[in-house]
Amino acid sequence: MFFAPLAAALALIPAALATITITQPSSSDFWVQNTTNIIAWSFDQGDTNPISIIVTNSNNTFLNGNFSIAEFVDLSNGTFTVTNVTLVEADGYTVSFVNPINQTVILATSQSFSVKPAGTTPASSGTPTSGSTSTSASASASGTSSGTPSSSASPLGNTNNNAAISGFSAQGIIGLIAACGVASVSAVLL
């Protein structure tokens, strides 16, 4: 009985050690519909890499559930460009970076931000610095009060099929091995 909670706690260690900070979007760096918008972040070399990017809104009238923006994004890029944003105009959106293998493991979450109507002047800091690298994707999502969402996105992120293996940090792999070992031992003891 003791080992099941221990296994769950050990599985969370890689997420707890993550130092990723999503700097854009934020409460002052909103997104504008039908334009190019930036996701920017800082990180440490030991952080889980690659990551998947999702958008959520606490009000499911605007976005029902998680909306996947990109899979297997290399953190060293520092930015990700989202084009043709057609999210419903609203407040309360957040961008989260999640483990691409287990999307219940949230590595970082942005500040709450708004999506403004097309034609709104973009936030002044909404462009990446000249030295940054970015990856882009097109995203579209909508939600209804009936809870029936529709969404679409173009092919995203890293197209290297080995990214799922070669992009993970040693810290993340060790945490995964430790969690599997503890789970195995607890299964034998139960």
TrEMBL record:
Pfam families hit by this protein: Kre9_KNH (PF10342)
Region Disordered: start-end pairs: 115-155
Superkingdom as given in the UniProt entry: Eukaryota
Low complexity: compositionally biased ranges: 117-155
Annotated Yeast cell wall synthesis Kre9/Knh1-like N-terminal domain residues: 24-115
Annotated keywords: Signal
Signal peptide residue numbers: 1-18
InterPro entries: GPI-anchor_Adhesion_Reg, Kre9/Knh1-like_N
Protein name from the UniProt record: Yeast cell wall synthesis Kre9/Knh1-like N-terminal domain-containing protein
